[in-house]
Amino acid sequence: MKEAFKALADPTRRKILDLLKENDLTAGEIAAEFSISKPSISQHLKILKTAGLIEDEKDGQYIYYHLNTTVFQELISWAMSFTQGGNTDA
């Protein structure tokens, strides 16, 4: 969970996640939404993937990125445990 929070701390990575809420996208499609270099976008994608927030899937010559909703469900469950007075063993 530590990696997920670290990944979420960056506004560029949060914007990438917002883009992926709508559709699966390639790295090129994601990069087109930013005014930073493609290698920088690749680094952000790597951090998000390492944190388990996104996954990739190869389709022919393209790699499509999509959200890993399981990790988001775990984060929400953990956060909700504070409002319910539950155990926070995460």
Automatic annotation (TrEMBL):
Organism: Halolactibacillus alkaliphilus
Keyword DNA-binding: yes
Keywords, alphabetical: DNA-binding, Transcription, Transcription regulation
Pfam families recorded: HTH_5
The organism's taxonomic lineage, starting at the top: Bacteria, Bacillati, Bacillota, Bacilli, Bacillales
Molecular functions per Gene Ontology: DNA binding; DNA-binding transcription factor activity
InterPro entries associated with the record: ArsR-like_HTH, HTH_ArsR_DNA-bd_dom, HTH_MetalResp_TranReg, SdpR-like_repress, WH-like_DNA-bd_sf, WH_DNA-bd_sf
Limits of the HTH arsR-type domain: 1-87
Recorded superkingdom: Bacteria
Official protein name in the record: Transcriptional regulator
NCBIfam families (alphabetical): HTH_metalloreg, repress_SdpR
